[in-house]
């Protein structure tokens, strides 16, 4: 089946899979968002334990999604991995350390006789949920705005700034995306607590948090979205491979791919609806509208970024070094083998859904946490 497909078809297939994984990753960042709410929602140690144990059941799923996304990107488009991770390694190492802090914190926060103390590990969780998320969003912003690299005839890359990727934080377009994802994670995190924790006080404060973070989220998201639709984009000629600037490229992509545009609009509406039912209808199920909405928005943005003859990792230093799904992908054989493996993705997703339902069949209560010796 896959072996008879053209190389371009396989490249597009894998870009669609990566777009889906990117959407799922942003959805799972409700864990990071929830970590940043620890000190504002919890009024005592009991409520703090409820929040951390609620997130503790899910943080590994988010970490796994991140690793899966990175691994799939490396296998399908290795030149991007070599260029970005080999050149912009300061920003990627900073992100890595932020996520190492998360793993360490959940494992050691309540271990007896730990030297750092619980509050130190809670600070680590705050760093992971704030700095880590904003840096990821800022790095993703460079996929639209461009980065400072060049490639030689042997596809060996050279980064052109001493900041090694950290220069991205000087571009407000990139930072706006990072901050928008940060506040989106906090919105989803509060919705998750409302759904998952059986505690009236946390639910009441969670609804207020959803409203406040929505108000903070919207300006940054609108700045990013409007700027994206109005800016020049990086297009390439499908015959010659020549990269050139095109006015309103990302708006043109949405218009040329109406399905992607519908996905984007549907995702935005679902996120807004989740806020409405959570805050004004006092629903416990807002996360099940906001989560899929976030997946659709992010997936549609990635599809807009890589399809319709668009350079998904442009170089503003050397335009012709920009990466596309055509010039940066693995071989036809590699993509074919990977595509057969990808048929197992629904099985994995089914397992995750079943595990999630088993863990959340019963809402978390203080009695359960106090009786559990393995609590986080």
Automatic annotation (TrEMBL):
<dbReference type="GO" id="GO:0019646">
    <property type="term" value="P:aerobic electron transport chain"/>
</dbReference>
<dbReference type="GO" id="GO:0046872">
    <property type="term" value="F:metal ion binding"/>
</dbReference>
<feature type="transmembrane region" description="Helical">
    <location>
        <begin position="287"/>
        <end position="307"/>
    </location>
</feature>
<dbReference type="InterPro" id="IPR003317">
    <property type="entry name" value="Cyt-d_oxidase_su2"/>
</dbReference>
<keyword id="KW-0813">Transport</keyword>
<feature type="transmembrane region" description="Helical">
    <location>
        <begin position="210"/>
        <end position="230"/>
    </location>
</feature>
<feature type="transmembrane region" description="Helical">
    <location>
        <begin position="12"/>
        <end position="31"/>
    </location>
</feature>
<keyword id="KW-0349">Heme</keyword>
<keyword id="KW-0812">Transmembrane</keyword>
<keyword id="KW-0249">Electron transport</keyword>
<dbReference type="GO" id="GO:0070069">
    <property type="term" value="C:cytochrome complex"/>
</dbReference>
<dbReference type="GO" id="GO:0005886">
    <property type="term" value="C:plasma membrane"/>
</dbReference>
<keyword id="KW-0408">Iron</keyword>
<comment type="similarity">
    <text>Belongs to the cytochrome ubiquinol oxidase subunit 2 family.</text>
</comment>
<keyword id="KW-0472">Membrane</keyword>
<feature type="transmembrane region" description="Helical">
    <location>
        <begin position="250"/>
        <end position="275"/>
    </location>
</feature>
<dbReference type="GO" id="GO:0009055">
    <property type="term" value="F:electron transfer activity"/>
</dbReference>
<keyword id="KW-1003">Cell membrane</keyword>
<protein>
    <submittedName>
        <fullName>Cytochrome d ubiquinol oxidase subunit II</fullName>
        <ecNumber>1.10.3.-</ecNumber>
    </submittedName>
</protein>
<dbReference type="Pfam" id="PF02322">
    <property type="entry name" value="Cyt_bd_oxida_II"/>
</dbReference>
<feature type="transmembrane region" description="Helical">
    <location>
        <begin position="125"/>
        <end position="149"/>
    </location>
</feature>
<feature type="transmembrane region" description="Helical">
    <location>
        <begin position="87"/>
        <end position="104"/>
    </location>
</feature>
<feature type="transmembrane region" description="Helical">
    <location>
        <begin position="333"/>
        <end position="354"/>
    </location>
</feature>
<feature type="transmembrane region" description="Helical">
    <location>
        <begin position="169"/>
        <end position="189"/>
    </location>
</feature>
<keyword id="KW-0560">Oxidoreductase</keyword>
<keyword id="KW-1133">Transmembrane helix</keyword>
<keyword id="KW-0479">Metal-binding</keyword>
<dbReference type="GO" id="GO:0016682">
    <property type="term" value="F:oxidoreductase activity, acting on diphenols and related substances as donors, oxygen as acceptor"/>
</dbReference>
<feature type="transmembrane region" description="Helical">
    <location>
        <begin position="61"/>
        <end position="81"/>
    </location>
</feature>
């Amino acid at each position: 089946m896959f072996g008879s497909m053209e190389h371009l078809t396989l490249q597009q297939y894998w870009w669609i899979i990566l777009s889906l994984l990117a959407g799922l990753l942003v959805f799972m960042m409700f864990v990071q968002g929830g970590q940043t709410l620890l000190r504002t929602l919890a009024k005592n140690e009991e409520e703090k334990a409820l929040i951390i144990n609620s997130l503790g059941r899910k943080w590994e799923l988010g970490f796994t999604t991140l690793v899966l996304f990175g691994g799939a990107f490396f296998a399908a488009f290795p030149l991007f991995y070599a260029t970005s991770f080999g050149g912009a390694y300061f920003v990627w190492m900073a992100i890595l350390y932020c996520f190492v802090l998360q793993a360490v914190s959940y494992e050691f926060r309540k271990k007896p006789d730990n030297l750092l103390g619980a509050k130190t590990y809670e600070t680590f969780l705050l760093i992971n949920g704030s700095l880590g998320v904003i840096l990821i969003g800022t790095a993703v912003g460079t996929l639209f705005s461009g980065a400072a690299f060049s490639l030689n005839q042997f596809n060996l890359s050279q980064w052109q700034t001493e900041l090694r990727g950290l220069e991205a934080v000087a571009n407000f377009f990139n930072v706006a995306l990072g901050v928008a994802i940060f506040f989106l994670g906090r919105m989803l995190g509060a919705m998750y607590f409302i759904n998952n924790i059986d505690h009236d006080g946390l639910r009441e404060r969670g609804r207020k948090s959803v409203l406040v973070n929505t108000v903070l989220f919207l300006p940054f998201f609108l700045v990013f979205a409007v700027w994206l639709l109005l800016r020049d984009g990086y297009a390439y000629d499908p015959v010659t491979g020549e990269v050139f600037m095109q006015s309103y490229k990302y708006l043109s992509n949405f218009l040329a791919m109406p399905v992607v545009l519908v996905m984007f609009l549907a995702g935005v509406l679902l996120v807004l609806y989740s806020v409405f039912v959570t805050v004004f209808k006092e629903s416990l199920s807002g996360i099940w509208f906001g989560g899929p909405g976030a997946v659709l928005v992010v997936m549609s943005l990635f599809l807009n970024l890589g399809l319709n003859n668009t350079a998904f990792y442009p170089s503003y230093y050397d335009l012709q070094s920009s990466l596309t799904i055509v010039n940066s992908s693995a071989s036809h054989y590699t993509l074919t083998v990977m595509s057969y493996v990808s048929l197992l993705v629904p099985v994995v997703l089914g397992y995750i859904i079943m595990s999630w339902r088993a863990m959340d069949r019963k809402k978390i209560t203080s009695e359960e946490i106090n009786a559990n010796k393995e609590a986080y």
